[in-house]
UniProtKB/TrEMBL annotation, chain A:
PANTHER family: NA(+)/H(+) ANTIPORTER SUBUNIT F1 (PTHR34702), NA(+)_H(+) ANTIPORTER SUBUNIT F (PTHR34702:SF1). Belongs to the CPA3 antiporters (TC 2.A.63) subunit F family. Its main location: membrane. It is a multi-pass membrane protein. The chain crosses the membrane at residues 6-25, 34-54, 60-82. It comes from Rossellomorea oryzaecorticis. Keywords: Antiport, Cell membrane, Ion transport, Membrane, Transmembrane, Transmembrane helix, Transport. Pfam families: MrpF_PhaF (PF04066). It is found in: Cell membrane. InterPro entries: MrpF/PhaF-like (IPR007208). This is Na(+)/H(+) antiporter subunit F1.
Length: 94, 801
């Protein structure tokens, strides 16, 4: 029973992934793509969680955490880039 | 190392001393010190004469590279001794002559004598080595030292040209000779000439025999200036005259003759040898003497005459090979050709040496060598004139000089070709006596030009730079000695025959010499009314007639257009070769990385596909494939979509993001295939590299930021599809043909017991195979340092700014 539900969920998540990828490719603006990418990251977290339930292992929990951090950092960096034109600003003291 | 070895290399050792002697004793001409060595060597070598006369040989071995079969084997037989005596004897006379020829103050004598001694040692090594590789080594030494001597006045354009030309041609021949030697080694299993000759019967049936013979002959022909490789010799006349006298008449150009004579016992049984050596020789004789007539430079005449005389000796050696096929005759009449070759070799060295020295004297005392400016020197230089007459008439083959005798024997040898019934010599062989006779007529003509245009006729003082007068006595000693040898050998040829000629002939045709016998080599002055005598009379008659009519028929020399002469073919060939190489290189080295990538990938596809097809290596084995789940298909689809859409992305930013998506998908694969560590690393690295790509994108100049889809190129598409297909095929074949079991069982068993870890990937990385990790760390360190230094180190900008 659990197995079937997991597979169903995976399918649904994959479908949403495809939708996100469509947005990623299509655009039309860069922020659209960045948001799509962020959502893809979160979707990946979901997929990995579901897959590790399917594979019955704890080995991928770190990957989930890492993805969460990376997606956050990546999105913030992208936003900063779109806002200010650079990511790491020069220190004014020097 | 015996005394003999030391004698052979002593000129090299002495050459080291020469610069010190030159610096220390500036007031004494360095040549006087140098003179001691060849004289000592000559008297050393002359003591071997009784040994070789009795048919004995001397063989001394010094180990050099025994594991390769390369040892310095010094071997003295009649032939080697003859050459050694020529080298040291004429060498002494040339050194003596050069003392008076080269000025103590103006010339760089230390260079000259170092090169000359190098050359002498090299020549001795060539003629006295029994080991082919050692022979080749000394052979190249002669090429190099000859190159240095021709370019002695290196500030002159023509000297450098001549030196380069002779270097290119003789080294070309030398290298083919080396190839021939290696083939001989492959066949016979030894580098020793003696041992090769002893198994020549088996070698003859070998498939490599003919290639080896052709390659060795190529070496001999280039060195001995045979047609069409004779073109370097006239240009080598830019060397100082003692060098021309020594190298380009008496010794170096005879290295090829020596090689042919030395290799005769090995190769001479085949008809190809007779036709090649004889045919090229006789044509060179004709061509050289024909061309000598049109020269206006005295040394040019002598150069072409040398070419022609070398052709004569060569043709005699070729024809002499026929004697091997008539061993049943008690009185082998074809031996006379070989006999004549050896005799003429000696004669040529004497008269040509003296003639070169005479020309050097004329050049030295009048300032020119152009026969159009010279004339009427007889009364100014009576001694020089006498020597010139003796030399030139000996060269022309007139009695009573030694050239007459060898020329008669040459005719005898050539006429007897007609009597041979082998190798279709009875039909085409008629060429030999005819060409020989015509060549001899021209020989007489240019000999007469040489003497009469220079010494008789009208004296033209206004054209000469100096007032002509007789040369100093020291300069005359050597040519006088040589000229008197011409006469002595002319009147008493038999002082040579038994002591030198017969052992040399025995060395060339060892199979004809029976045990305990020595070859009968009696040279008679008068041999009756034979065809040869009438041929000589004809030569004299026609020669004088044609000489008188010379202005009338001289225009036949303009029949050959300048474009088709061998020299312009050589020059044009060099230019065209350089141009072709240049345009070829320019054609494919475009300077664009994309072209090189096309080459690399095209070869990659071609070679791998060919191998796959040629070896029949393609295989599909579906036996142990794992079942494919729906997730794998979904992720693979994702991967394909994201990577293919990179190709069609309009902006670079989209491409970067798609690349990131592909990277993340790969990490998803790692998750699915249970590789958590890989997935972790892949995620982080992918994020970092996408950020770096974005950084690059951000710094693109505005011009190249415009959004444009990648343009389609059919070639690129084909190559990329090809690479993909090839890699796929190889991956499938490799998976389908597993040859051995995986070694991972060991790791699984021992990861905890041996290495105290449960994470197997990490244990492998830091424990089982930690070395790889160490150097991966190094790679990262280098990359980081490299990036840092690239950013910080701005040498050019600092200069500009």
């Amino acid at each position: 029973m659990l197995h079937t539900i997991l597979q169903l969920t995976l399918l649904l998540v994959s479908l949403s992934m495809l939708g996100l990828i469509y947005r990623l490719i299509k655009g039309p603006t860069t922020p659209d793509r960045v948001v799509a990418l962020d959502a893809i990251g979160i979707n990946l977290i979901a997929i990995i969680a579901l897959v590790s339930m399917l594979l019955d292992t704890f080995a991928f929990l770190e990957v989930i955490l890492l993805l969460g951090i990376l997606a956050f950092i990546g999105t913030v960096a992208f936003s900063k880039f779109l806002e200010k034109g650079e990511i790491i600003e020069r220190d004014r003291d020097h | 190392m015996t005394l003999l070895h030391w004698a052979i290399i002593s000129p090299f050792l002495f050459a080291i001393l020469i610069p010190f002697l030159y610096k220390a004793f500036r007031s004494i001409h360095t040549g006087w010190f140098v003179l001691l060595l060849p004289v000592a060597l000559f008297s050393y070598f002359i003591q071997f004469m009784p040994i070789t006369r009795d048919g004995n040989t001397i063989k001394e071995t010094a180990e050099w590279m025994p594991s390769f079969g390369i040892n310095f084997i010094a071997y003295i037989d009649g032939l080697g001794l003859l050459f050694a005596l020529l080298i040291t004897g004429i060498g002494s006379l040339v050194v003596l002559y050069s003392i008076y020829y080269l000025d103590k103050k103006k010339e760089q004598l230390h260079n000259f004598y170092v090169y000359l001694m190098m050359f002498m040692g090299a020549m001795l090594g060539v003629v006295l080595s029994d080991n082919l590789i050692v022979l080749y080594m000394f052979w190249e030494f002669t090429s190099i030292s000859s190159f240095l001597l021709i370019g002695y006045w290196y500030h002159r354009e023509r000297s450098r040209y001549g030196a380069q030309k002779s270097m290119l041609i003789t080294v070309f021949g030398g290298l083919s000779m080396l190839a021939g030697f290696i083939l001989l080694y492959l066949m016979g299993g030894t580098f020793s000439i003696r041992e090769l000759i002893s198994q020549s019967d088996q070698l003859m049936t070998n498939a490599l025999f003919i290639p080896a013979m052709l390659l060795v002959l190529l070496g001999a022909f280039t060195k001995s200036a045979q047609f069409p490789f004779h073109i370097w010799l006239p240009d080598a006349m830019e060397a100082p005259t003692p060098v021309s006298a020594y190298l380009h008449s008496a010794t170096m150009v005879k290295a090829g003759i020596y090689l042919v004579a030395r290799m005769s016992p090995l190769f001479a049984e085949t008809s190809l040898w007779l036709w090649l050596v004889g045919g090229f020789g006789i044509f060179t004789l004709f061509w050289g003497s024909f061309n000598a007539v049109k020269q206006t430079d005295l040394k040019g005449i002598l150069a072409f005459s040398t070419v022609s005389q070398l052709g004569l000796i060569m043709s005699l050696l070729g024809v002499g090979a026929a004697a091997l096929h008539y061993t049943h005759l008690d009185d082998n009449i074809y031996m006379v050709a070989t006999l004549a070759a050896v005799f003429h070799l000696i004669n040529h060295a004497t008269f040509k040496g003296s003639l070169f020295m005479v020309v050097g004297i004329i050049d030295h005392e009048t300032g020119t060598r152009d026969i159009r400016k010279l004339g009427g020197l007889m009364s100014f230089m009576p001694i020089t004139f006498t020597v010139a007459v003796i030399g030139a008439f000996s060269m022309a083959g007139l009695p009573p000089f030694n050239g007459f005798l060898s020329k008669e024997m040459f005719f005898t040898g050539m006429v007897r070709v007609l009597e041979m019934d082998i190798f279709s010599l009875d039909t085409a062989g008629i060429l030999f006596p005819v060409l020989a006779w015509v060549g001899s007529i021209f020989t007489l003509i240019y000999s007469m030009i040489l003497v009469f245009k220079t010494f008789t006729g009208e004296h033209q003082p206004e054209k000469l730079e100096k007032k002509p007068h007789e040369a100093p006595f020291g300069m005359l000693i050597s040519p006088i000695i040589l000229a008197s040898l011409v006469i002595v050998f002319g009147f008493f040829p038999n002082i040579l025959s038994e002591r030198i000629i017969a052992p040399a002939v025995a060395a060339i045709t060892p199979s004809l010499v029976e045990e305990g016998h020595v070859i009968e080599a009696h040279i008679t002055f008068w041999h009756g009314f034979t065809p040869e005598l009438f041929m000589t009379l004809g030569v004299i008659l026609f020669g004088i007639l044609l000489y008188q009519l010379l202005p009338k028929w001289k225009k036949i020399y303009s029949w050959i257009p300048e474009r088709l002469t061998l020299n312009s073919i050589y020059d044009g060939g060099l230019v065209r070769g350089e141009r072709a190489a240049f345009s070829f290189t320019r054609g494919y080295m475009t300077g664009f990385i994309r072209s090189y990538l096309v080459y690399i990938f095209a070869f990659f596809i071609g070679i791998l596909l060919f191998t796959l097809w040629f070896k029949g290596a393609f295989a599909i084995n579906t036996g142990d494939l794992a079942p494919i789940g729906i997730y794998e298909i979904a992720i693979a689809l994702l991967l394909v979509i994201s990577s293919v859409s990179i190709l069609f992305a309009k902006s670079r930013l989209t491409a970067i993001i798609l690349l990131g998506a592909a990277g993340y998908t790969v990490s998803l694969f790692f998750v699915l295939f249970r590789a958590p560590d890989l997935a972790l690393t892949q995620l982080v690295i992918e994020t970092v590299s996408v950020a770096l790509f974005l950084l690059c994108f951000y710094h693109l100049p505005p011009l190249s930021r415009h959004e444009e889809r990648m343009s389609f190129k059919l070639g690129n598409a084909l190559i990329s599809i090809g690479v993909g297909v090839v890699v796929t095929l190889f991956a499938i074949s490799a998976y389908s043909t597993k040859l051995s079991e995986s070694i991972s069982e060991y790791y699984i068993k021992n990861v905890y017991e041996e290495a105290a870890g449960k994470n197997m990937v990490n244990v492998i990385l830091v424990d089982f195979r930690g070395f790889d990790t160490l150097f991966e760390i190094c790679v990262l360190a280098i990359a980081a340092l490299g990036i840092y230094s690239m950013i910080k180190l701005r040498l050019t900008r600092r200069k500009e700014g």
